[in-house]
Specification:
The complex is a heterodimer of chains A (115) and B (112). With 115 residues, chain A is mainly beta. Chain A has strands spanning 4-5, 10-14, 19-25, 32-38, 45-51, 56-58, 62-67, 72-77, 86-93, 104-105, 109-114. Chain B is globular and about 40 Å long. The chains are: A mainly beta (115), B mainly beta (112). The interface between A and B is medium-sized, with 23 and 24 residues.
Chain lengths: 115, 112
């Protein structure tokens, strides 16, 4: 079935560096892609999303890039801080039919930021 | 701002027992989703409800059932518990038509 997966399961960076977390997806029918941050013992927290008709979207210190040609999604975090340490999941969803809103998550990348 | 509330936060049950997990969505949210997250795994979609009707169903065992009530809170009922049911169970809520789902803190279920 469709899946969303990540290339790198762990990422360690120094405080102040930029971080890039990657994700590959297989369902070309996906309408939305979302990045979630999950801290230990907590539920996933919405970071940013992007529609399938967009290539790039920026938020506060985060940028999501979507390359539909190669079905690739990335999350860029600028000036990474220790508080950014968490597991990051990409997820996809698509409108229409009975699957509207259902999220399919990727494997997750553990981001560790060293002071 | 009000968030999604889940109870209990922790639950320990023995094999073959039953468990009921509760979820209280953000006020005015009409859609509730349930996800299961095993250790070191990504969340897996179980079931969702919109306006008290089941809207989608994922990899939910027949031993599990769920419903959404008139006040929009939802309950996940789990029977004949197995060791493999030990996991974090998240509830998320949203407004229909919007893709942003807000997750609760989860219920950690341990089956011994």
């Amino acid at each position: 079935g469709e899946s969303v997966g990540l290339h790198l399961p762990t990422l360690s960076v120094q405080e102040g560096d930029n971080s890039i977390i990657n994700c590959a997806y297989s369902n070309s029918a996906s309408d939305y892609f979302i990045w979630y941050k999950q801290e230990s013992g907590k539920g996933p927290q919405f970071i940013i999303d992007i529609r399938s008709n967009m290539d790039k979207r920026q938020g506060q210190r985060v940028t999501v890039l979507l390359n539909k040609t190669v079905k690739h999604l990335s999350l860029q975090i600028a000036a990474t801080q220790p508080g950014d340490s968490a597991v990051y999941f990409c997820a996809e969803t698509h409108a229409g039919g009975t699957s509207y809103g259902k999220l399919t998550f990727g494997q997750g990348t553990i981001l560790t930021v060293h002071p | 701002a009000a968030g999604v509330i889940q109870s209990p936060r922790h639950l320990i049950k023995e094999k073959r027992e039953t468990a009921t997990l509760k979820c209280y969505p953000i006020p005015r949210h009409d859609t509730v989703y349930w996800y299961q997250q095993g250790p070191g795994q990504d969340p897996q979609f179980l079931i969702s409800f919109y306006e008290k009707m089941q809207s989608d169903k994922g990899s939910i065992p027949d031993r599990f059932s769920a419903q959404q009530f008139s006040d929009y809170h939802s309950e996940l009922n789990m029977s004949s518990l197995e060791l493999g049911d030990s996991a974090l169970y998240f509830c998320a809520s949203s407004l229909v038509g919007l893709n942003e789902q807000y997750f609760g803190p989860g219920t950690r279920l341990t089956v011994t």
